[in-house]
Amino acid sequence: MAIARCLEIHDLVLSKCVRGEARDYEFTEVALREGLAEADVLLSRISDLPVGQRVRARLQKTVGGIVSKLDGA
């Protein structure tokens, strides 16, 4: 019997954002636009990430910017 384990979508999106490449932010935008991820969940989970404060600040700014961009679209 095969067992598949998959990351929950918000955890997947944030793990990609931590890496911080342009394609990771594009993935984030698509996940939000297509309704796969919820903005409030992403933004609230940033503070729980096991990363330094600089990375958290970058994520807040970048993910927040993506959310704002989509809200204005």
Keywords for this entry:
73 residues; single chain; globular; 4 helices
Question: Could you explain the architecture of this structure?
Answer:
- With 73 residues, the protein is mainly alpha-helical.
- It has one domain (9-72).
- The chain is 68% helix and 0% strand.
- It contains 4 helices and no strands.
- It is globular and about 45 Å long.
- It starts with 8 loop residues before the first helix and ends with a helix.
- The mean pLDDT is 95.
Sum this structure up briefly.
The chain is mainly alpha-helical and 73 residues long. The protein is 68% helix and 0% strand.
Helix content: 55-70%
Give the CA-based shape: globular
Number of helices: 4
DSSP strand tally: 0
Q: Average pLDDT, to the nearest integer?
A: 95
Computed Rg: 13 Å
Helical/strand content category: mainly alpha
Q: How many domains, as an integer?
A: 1
End-to-end distance, in Å? 45 Å
Reported for the largest beta sheet, the result is: none
Beta-strand proportion = under 5%
Low-confidence stretches: none
List the helices and strands in order. Answer: HHHH
Question: How are the SSEs placed, and which strands pair?
Answer:
Blueprint (H helix, E strand, L loop, with lengths): L8 H11 L2 H12 L5 H7 L7 H20 L1
